[in-house]
Amino acid sequence: MTGDKLSKDRMELVDRISELPEFILHIILSSLDMKEACRASVLSKKWHAAWSSIPVLDFQPQHFKKAGPPNSGKFDEDFYDIYTLGSYTAFIITTMERYSSQKHGIRKFCLEFPLFDASLEPLIDKWIGIAVQNKVEEFNITIVVEESLDYTLPEFLFCARSLKFLRGDKVVMPNYPTMKLFCLEKLLLTRATIDDDMLQRIISSCPLIALEFRGCAALKSISVPFIKKSHKDDVAEDFGTRTPQSNNRISTLEKFFYLNYFQCPWPWHMNIAALRNLRKVEITSADITDDVVFELASGLSVLEKLVLNKCVLLKSVKISSISLRNFNVVGCHMLEKLTIDAPNLTMFRLYSELNFAQSITNVSTELMPALSIVNVPDSCDGDLFVWVVDPCTEWFVKLQEFLVGTKIFKVIEMTLSGLESGYQMEVDEDHLRKINIGAPYKLREIKLYDTCNWDLDESSITAFLDGLFWSCRPDVLVIPTGFQNTAVQLILIILKEKEQCWKDPLKSVEVEGFESPELLSYPYELEIKLRLSW
């Protein structure tokens, strides 16, 4: 093929792409960062026209960063000098002036600034004003660096009748008199300072589907949803109080997420009767009590997912829900008893950040909660995460007792860490053989984490595997591999020896996903699966 012919075919290919409808070109350009999309505008007049009217504006300063160390995924302000931030700001000014003069619609407007000071406020206010005038539907602003000033959202943003999604990180939301967010469905605030009355008005007047709050310390008392008191009966909305039927307004809220970075009291008062559409609740580091969790689980008629993470006031929790399908308890280390009555539960995860072995040495302080499964189907996929420190013979006995007593877990995830160099693990096999608890508990899978940090010799790893396989029998053993991970290689050697020993119940070991042993020392962490036959 001649060079002229090849060049002609390439031109025809470019022409075919350029002939695509403008909305498809918008989709293509929206998948690029703003700087790359700007470069694509030089391909042809049609590409330039598409770039000039793209409805998604996603301004991120890392796209203007000078060449430097590879991006680790975290912001490093040292890479953003005055020149870089100046060119970034100038690019936004030019772009927003074009949208202001040509009145192109803006569906999504995202703005990220590494640092914020008072000199930038008029500029950002102006850009937001242009987005509001051009019928913005999704708005997202982030101030990255914690030490910089917070940006105060302008009042006219709350007059954006077209706005459906509002997200702010390190922003201030004052109590403005104007509120016209008639289409707002999702409100996500992180490290934000919010006036209680302002937030209450948003919740009261908007058709919200999702509420998310991360590290918003100023919240004191919020009702969800807010319903006015009765003219006939002065009864406030709260847990355990009934409001006259004429006052009940059914909330559209489907998702509620609350993360508390600070030691703040639980600020939410939820009218359970009105939250008939709430399907997903995630609560992290909040001072909620047992009765609040019970009200949520039993009162929300369509609740499908409940996550309780690091809620340290929980002690005796009872979950009773027909609709609940996914339940996660993570790091609630003061929890002593957990009762589950959920006939449609399909996934249950129990993650303990504390040492499971500590409950062995001190019976009066049982750190793993007493788990009572009242009504859960056998098909429920139970996942137990255990932080293992100083395992011994009794540890494996307690592990089997816990598994057999609950009969819900199919997967165990283990982190074995904190063992000093030269640590010797010992398991009394003769003692284990004399214990008559029953057959080892059958599991679908065991995952071992942090094997790269294991500083154990072959005898200690052998003792660990002996105790583990005495207490439970997994179909699959998953272990991460990585650079110079000698623990993984030792595990493979030990399992092969067990496979060849006629006294051991392990019949065969099949390695999945690795065609070459050299991959075991691959410099990046991967997962190796060992299928075990007993």
Please give a structural write-up:
This protein is an alpha/beta fold and 534 residues long. Helices cover 28% and strands 26% of the residues. It is built from 13 helices and 25 strands. The protein has helices at 3-18, 22-30, 34-40, 45-52, 82-102, 121-133, 196-205, 290-299, 358-361, 393-406, 429-434, 458-471, 486-500, and strands at residues 56-59, 108-113, 138-143, 151-152, 165-169, 171-173, 186-190, 193-194, 210-214, 222-224, 255-259, 268-270, 280-284, 305-309, 316-320, 326-330, 337-341, 347-355, 370-375, 381-388, 409-416, 441-449, 472-481, 508-512, 526-533. It has a 17-stranded mixed beta sheet. The chain has a three-stranded parallel beta sheet with strand order 4-6-8. Helix 5 (82-102) links the parallel strand 1 and strand 2 (108-113). Helix 12 packs across helix 13. The longest helix has 21 residues, at 82-102. It is globular, with a radius of gyration of 29 Å. The termini are far apart.
From the structure above, extract its key features.
28% helix; 534 residues; 25 strands; alpha/beta; 17-stranded mixed β-sheet
Quick summary of this structure?
The chain has helices spanning about 5-20, 20-30, 35-40, 45-50, 80-100, 120-135, 195-205, 290-300, 360, 395-405, 430-435, 460-470, 485-500, and strands at about 55-60, 110-115, 140-145, 150, 165-170, 170-175, 185-190, 195, 210-215, 220-225, 255-260, 270, 280-285, 305-310, 315-320, 325-330, 335-340, 345-355, 370-375, 380-390, 410-415, 440-450, 470-480, 510, 525-534.
